[in-house]
Amino acid sequence: MAGAKKAERAVGLAGQGVLTLTDLGYENLSLALRHPIKKPKGGELTIAQEQYNQLIRAVHGVVERANSLLKTTSRHCAG
Predict the structure, then answer these.
(1) The DDE Tnp4 domain covers which part of the protein (predicted)?
(2) Domains of the chain: which residue ranges?
């Protein structure tokens, strides 16, 4: 799926209330998209921002693993 179509779909899902996790490539595309918070130049993240990023990374890791398993399982089943 092309990048623009993926972004359009992510924004559409988020607008429907679906929790939509993205990487920093989608930053500032929509307030409804959830992505890690960047550390400001010359600054530090607050403890709350660090915890938010930790949660996003944890959920993102589980989702990426599930996606990988679905792709490899369906490839093996298709034969």
Answers:
(1) 15-72
(2) 1-35, 38-79
Residue type, 33: L
Q: What is the 3-state secondary structure (H, E, C) of 15-72?
A: HCCCCEECCHHHCCCCCCEECCCCCCCCCCCCHHHHHHHHHHHHHHHHHHHHHHHHHH
pTM of the model as a whole: 0.59
What are the distances in angstroms from CA 46 to CA 18, 21, 37, 49, 67? Answer: 27, 21, 10, 5, 31
Looking at residue 1, what DSSP letter applies? -
